[in-house]
Amino acid sequence: MRVAALYDIHGNLPALEAVLEEIGRLNVDQIVVGGDILPGPMPQATLQRLFSLHLPVHFIQGNGERAVLALLAAPNEQAVAYWGTVSGKPLPEEYRPGYRWTAQQVGADYRSVMAGWPKTLRLDVEGLGAVLFCHGTPRSETEVITRLTAEDRLKPLFETLDAAVVVCGHTHMPFDRWVGNTH
């Protein structure tokens, strides 16, 4: 089974189309969308394109989806309890219009669908074994790890996962590394 993992699309439909064209050439069997389809410039068209694919597609929530869902659920912006920030503090005012606009674009049409997406997904992939997909880390969609994150900080988290491979996004920086016995 060949799995493509798409992360941090951020409503960029032209970029998604280019990636999907490449996926078509690679004979991929399944797609995992690892969060942060939202926010971005073409949220509804991007969601529609992903839902129209003729392969199995699995979705997990990123901090972007969770923030849009929180905004849609709140009676007013002051009541929003989650903005998806790494610090946990409210989103700075200059970034809020993009989230408001995205929430208006997706509205109730996608609210229940996105709310049902899990935070993590585990698939058994031939040749790899158990693969865990998450947005930031398995414990938090806002936690940041990079190729430079100290192994002693990550080892306690990765040792308990019982996964051969962990696929994370969130940072918009591709990297490949081992933490203990986990790739």
Number of strands: 6
Helical segment tally? 5
Percentage of helical residues? 25-40%
Gross morphology: globular
What topology, given as strand order, has the largest sheet?
1-2-3
Structural class by secondary-structure content? alpha/beta
Largest sheet entry: 3 strands, parallel
CATH topology of the largest domain: Purple Acid Phosphatase, chain A, domain 2
CATH superfamily of the largest domain: Metallo-dependent phosphatases
> Proportion of β residues?
5-15%
- Indicate the radius of gyration in whole angstroms: 17 Å
Task: Please outline what is shown here.
This protein has 183 residues and is of the alpha/beta class. It has helices at 13-25, 43-51, 63-73, 96-115, 151-159, and strands at 3-6, 30-33, 57-59, 120-125, 129-134, 165-167.
Describe the protein in words.
- With 183 residues, the chain is of the alpha/beta class.
- It folds into two domains: 3-115, 4-Layer Sandwich (Purple Acid Phosphatase, chain A, domain 2), CATH 3.60.21; 120-167, no CATH class.
- 34% of the residues lie in helices and 14% in strands.
- The protein has five helices and six strands.
- The strands form two sheets. The chain has a three-stranded parallel beta sheet, with no helix packed on it. It has a three-stranded mixed beta sheet with strand order 4-5-6, with no helix packed on it.
- Strand 1 (3-6), helix 1 (13-25) and strand 2 (30-33) form a beta-alpha-beta unit.
- Helix 3 packs across helix 4 (96-115).
